[in-house]
Amino acid sequence: SQKKQRGVNEMTEKPSQIKKSGDSVIDPCRQRMLERSANGGFNGLRRLLRLMDDNADNKLTPQELADGCKLFQLDYSTADIEKLFKFLDRDRNGYVSLTEFIRGLRPEMSMRRKNLVLKAYGLLDVNGDNTVTMDELKELYDATQHPQVIAGKKTVDEIIIEFAATWDKDGDGIVTQCEFMDYYADIGANIDNDDYFELMMRNAWHMSGGEGACRNTSCLRVLVTYKDGRSQVVEVKDDIRLNRKDDDAIIKKLEEQGIENIKKIETHA
């Protein structure tokens, strides 16, 4: 339609980074879509999907994908469309969701984001065997920091249920480092801002650090009174496994941070 074509013509910025697979079907599609999506950003790619999504259900059928490729002047055969659809439809449910569309097309996760995900996993994988149990993750994960909970779109319980279903698809109760990274690649596909992604990771997994808007706010802060009478508020760093009701454990954790001569702490500060 003319309306669709106007939308296509308006979206002409070049992407800053295009991941290449060496595939003659996937790479041209990725190149064209990113060129038309305002640098591969979430909003630009969402707008592309909406242009292709004839029935406005926020997902693409094979026919809608084929029509969309024609709209963007990609001369694909039926076999090419089948290949592209299979590539994008990661959960094999017969539709390409917004997250699948964005994940398949936008640039790879940046090293800054990857390092944050690896650091979070390292806090959970205490014995370094590249496995964490699903029960541990559900117990430790702070779902209050999930973007959809913060936005009021979902409850904490809903996120935990989705969280378990996403990671433990084979039912073995184990989440590997690769599965953990894959989960956050999906989450990150919907987040343009690296600072927001960092804040989300730090607060969800209680990782200390960060600067400015990225600075962790979920780690426990306590009022420490020293033996000489001084007092100050101190952050208990990387407190993901800490029992916040155990003062002795908190003091031990503070001492490991180099905080000495503690007389008492107050956790309600």
Structure description:
The N terminus is likely disordered. Strands 6-5-7 form a 3-stranded antiparallel beta sheet, covered by helices on one side. A two-stranded antiparallel ribbon has the order 1-2. A two-stranded antiparallel ribbon has the order 3-4. α3 crosses α6, α6 packs across α11 and α7 packs across α11. The protein contains 13 helices and 7 strands. It is elongated and about 80 Å long. The chain has 269 residues and is mainly alpha-helical.
Strand order of the largest sheet: 6-5-7
Question: With helices defined by DSSP (H or I, 4 residues minimum), what is the helix count?
Answer: 13
Q: How much of the polypeptide forms β-strand, as a percent range?
A: 5-15%
* Radius of gyration computed on alpha carbons: 23 Å
Poorly predicted tracts of residues: 2-18
List the secondary-structure elements in sequence, H or E: HHHEHHEHHEHHHEHHEEHE
Principal-axes shape call: elongated
Reported for the largest beta sheet, the result is: 3 strands, antiparallel
**Strands, count:** 7
Structural class category: mainly alpha
Name the average pLDDT.
85
Helix content: 40-55%
Distance between the termini: 61 Å
How would you summarize what this structure contains?
The protein is mainly alpha-helical and 269 residues long. The protein is built from 13 helices and seven strands.
Detail the topology: elements first, then pairings.
Elements: H1 2-10, H2 26-35, H3 42-52, E1 59-60, H4 62-71, H5 78-88, E2 96-97, H6 98-105, H7 111-124, E3 131-133, H8 134-140, H9 147-150, H10 156-167, E4 174-176, H11 177-189, H12 194-204, E5 221-226, E6 231-235, H13 247-256, E7 262-266
Antiparallel strand pairs: 1-2, 3-4, 5-6, 5-7
Helix pairs in contact: 3-6, 6-11, 7-11, 7-12
